[in-house]
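COURSE: Structural Biology Practicum
ASSIGNMENT: Worksheet 4, Part C
STUDENT ID: 0417
INSTRUCTIONS: Below are two proteins. For each, the amino acid sequence is given first, followed by its structure token string. Answer the questions at the end about the second protein only.

PROTEIN I
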Amino acid sequence: MKKHIINIALAMSLAAMLAACYSDDSTLGDLSAVGDIEIAEMPAQSVISYAGNHLMVTPVIESTFGDADLEYAWYIYQEWTEEEDGFRTNCISRERNLDYEVNLASGTYTVALEVKSRSNGLAKLQSMTLNVKTQFADAFYILKETADGNTDLDIVASDGGLGENIITNMYGNPVSGKPVNIAVLYGQNCIDPDTEEMTAINTVNVFTETSYESYRAEDMKKVFDKTTISYAGEENTANYRNIVNGYFAAFLVADNGVGAKAYGTDFGLSTGKYGLPAVEGNYSKHMQMLGQGGTGMAVWDNDNHGIYSIDYNCRYAMEIIADPTSNETCIASGINRTGGTETVWYLTEDAAKAKRFLYLIDSNFGELIEKRPLDPSLHISNATCVAACGGSAAYIYAVDGGRLYGYGWENGTEVEISLPGISGNITFVTNQWLCDLYGGTYDFDNLIVAEQKGDTYSIFFYDSLVGGVPTDAPYMKAQGNGRIRAVRRTTPSVIGYFNVSVSGYSPMPIFPTSD
């Protein structure tokens, strides 16, 4: 008999414990009221974020209350909190069926549905797991000008999915000012926004006429802006224009000079903040590596109207060619590696826009090969968009009259480049490519062109380039709103000093940094 009494007591105790464990999934306002609400289990879901994807849930609800008596609330949270209202601080819908566009950083979230009776306050709760991933780390970023003259980003993921207005979706507003440049920096040193520890990450850097912002490539969390990238803080008045991986330092280019900071982990970690410019001057966004960075970095000087080489330690600038009395401005630059030769070029235009000049530089020695006046009848002399062909041919791409041409500087001739699968008028071109010496997991060579009709763009991606020319129809395409100003690609590659210095064909991303 004693044994049975103990078992009954144990059962009662266990029941009490279970009741306590599940006491948070319902609330009963009037204990004497008759009624019930049951919400069926909702299976976990996975969603790619910032790509226009929606979490859609049609819950199965059984209730003795009438439909008009029930009210619904959907909440989303990452961590349980004991603060007032708990998880109920972020309500995403008050409809019975959930239709929620997912614009969240990578992570695991809990989505909770609360169903409540208005008449007696009875409430029941059911939750589900939402796994969120991003495709930011391996994607094409489209820098665009918005209709109101500011700057935003679209992304085209590896599966062709388009995510529009990424910055506005995440932060409520676009970046202020018209777009100037976008740069992908591998191994940027910073304070991790999650752990608050020093780290090295791949970043997407956006430059406008008035602003600068840097985002972690994995999830677009902001790591720097104009006030935090510099020790000058709120007093920083520099206008930044580019950031580029060099020999072992990342070069930050501004209208008051160039500074350098180690990137990656080869030389330890830092906060990533820059001090005063090491080399003073009013420099443009047009910076290119010389001799894989070992010879320095070539950059266009706006005041002296010429090209300077900044040494790889960023201590001094040496003139390659300059004429302070001229009125030339740089409109494009690039780097090309074909046939074992690396050539850096700069395209300039006089103030009257009547004459263009092509500067050719021997990258390994940082020396001028030629300053070439271009025949005004050439397409490159009239092109509305000019870009480097990185490695498949010794071409400079030029868009003129809605058609694409390749200018060969070795013989000074031009050819029209056929674009299979496109019949419209081309307005934009760029060649993005990466050659990784250590395996090629993320190697790519993409010719990217776009058509612009009003505020709508159509963008096309080609691979399988032979002699700078695509052989097949676009393998991927997308359409969005805004005016394209530049395109860059991110990959999960890890690049540091050793990667850059080991080979004449180093695995550095040599796609144009400032076309």
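PROTEIN II
(use this one for the questions)
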Amino acid sequence: MLTDARALNSGSSLRADVCIVGGGAAGITIAMEMLNSDLSVLLLESGGTESDAATQALAQGESIGAPLTSLDNPVNLDQTRLRYLGGTTNHWAGFCRPLSPIDFETRDHLVVSGWPIDYADMVPYWDRAAEWVRISDADFSIGAWERRLGVSAPPIDTLAVEPLAFQVSFPTKFGDVYAPELRAAANIEVLLHANALNLAGNDGQRVAHVDVATLSGVSFTVEARAYVLAAGGIENARLLLASIDSDPAGLGNSNGLVGRYFSEHLQIYAGFGVLEPDFGEVSGLQGGEVAITQGRHAGHVHGAKFALGLTDAHLRSAATTGLELQFLPGRLPDGAPLQEQGVTVGDISAMMAHTGPEPGTAVYLQALAEQEPNPQSRVMLGSRTDALGMRRVRLDWQYTAADRRRVIAGLRVMAEAIGAADWGRLQLVPGGVHADAHDNLVSGELLTIFRSVPDEIDLSGFPVGVGFHHMCTTRMSRSVEQGVVDADCRMHEVDNLWVAGSSVFATAGTATPTMSIVALSIRLADHLQELLG
């Protein structure tokens, strides 16, 4: 059922087998996996079923590190996450792809790396996650998607560079999609407008209860056999740091690792290029649509598209980090808005001094890169408090000159592979390409018109955007000396507290995180049901 916490009596004490803090992709997935089980589940959601300004203001904070930008525009910390049912799935672009095998490996050239679980351990959970995120299945093989879409992937497949397939779920707002089943569930109660303020406990080894409050002034507690933090990569760390009953450094933070290694996906408008095939032959770069054929979402239409990525073998041999390259065709699909705007093939050919027959397609290049784990990049608490008296977040996002150098090196490897295959030519101009968003959707994606400003090219200081992907702040590790949670997502130092979401990622990888968030949440739900059942 869905209940408004503002209707409760102050001083109430609620009880459940499992208390989940946060109603985004992770929290809703765990609850739905426990649907109709013998366990009673209480999910605390800060907001309601729609966004409201007062609740969203609780996400405000101070950003003191690298600037946060999206599509060249500065963004505030509260814009990167949403506090109402569904969480940040309410502005999720829908891109789905699993992590890669190398993401789970120990890489000596990184400060920390290696998960306490293997890639193979996750495979069955990605299979199950496909249904919750509303895509066809967990088959991301190039051959399968060439057949399904009827188009070809980029013909680049070397030891260093390979084609990638994405499935794109649009729109999948978990609150809207799964609210009817949550409302009807006999064993699940979703408390709306319920803000967790403190994980109470005097010995630091167990949570005794959660202190909860509403903006209307109602306060109450929740007691459970198991507690799950599923409030996002920033708020998970914030709540642990704010829970100081037993330690002023925060709950489960004896080694000072809660909030450290905050990672984002680095997004760079990298340049432009021309491809030899005409637009029809490379339409898979823009994407196509398919319908789900089975399961609870049969008939739902989602998208798919191709990109290029550095191979795991190259990351190992070059001791580098991951990089993906998406191609945004300069010519939009027939009938799309803004058809006549943007740079033409002829314009780009002239800029590149291209010789020979005019190539068929103009493209812009958008890179997404893995950030090296950095202990100085961290979530902290500031001195200011929010409307509920909780200390606001102070984010110090830090990436390094080495991160930028790896991006440039990876782009050069990709450009050389494309040229060697005679598929096209790329002009890398990081810092010299800017994006202007327009409110027009084609195949579920926002269309963007790009500008090239060659005078602003800066190979060492080019601007870096964010993906709103908050990862690694409660990283999974084999020992308490290297992380915050164990292989089962349980806090190393707190017996009855688990953490869900991308904050437990040990390294960020390059794959967009939502599908792996859901897969890890399914795995955690299985673990809790086995443990508590």
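ANSWER KEY EXCERPT:
Q1: The chain has ten helices and 23 strands.
Q2: The first strand starts at residue 2 and ends at 4.
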